[in-house]
């Protein structure tokens, strides 16, 4: 894929974004505010997912491994 095709494809994607969100009817300053809010919301969701989902997955795995996994060994067996 050469540079011209890539540029045309990105322009087409941007045009689709404008049509789908309906911001093609907004003024430029309204578009920038809308895009800033949208980008901020997406950035917060990505950051929160990156920080908190691994913690919740680990806790869920520990919980379900305690229910369905092996039973813990007794302390007598651990001492021997």
Automatic annotation (TrEMBL):
Pathway: Lipid metabolism; sphingolipid metabolism; Sphingolipid metabolism. It is a multi-pass membrane protein. It comes from the Eukaryota. One of its GO terms (molecular function) is serine C-palmitoyltransferase activity. The chain crosses the membrane at residues 9-26, 32-53. Its main location: endoplasmic reticulum. GO terms for cellular component: endoplasmic reticulum membrane; serine palmitoyltransferase complex. It is found in: Endoplasmic reticulum membrane. Belongs to the SPTSS family. SPTSSB subfamily. This is Serine palmitoyltransferase small subunit B. It comes from Amphilophus citrinellus (Midas cichlid).
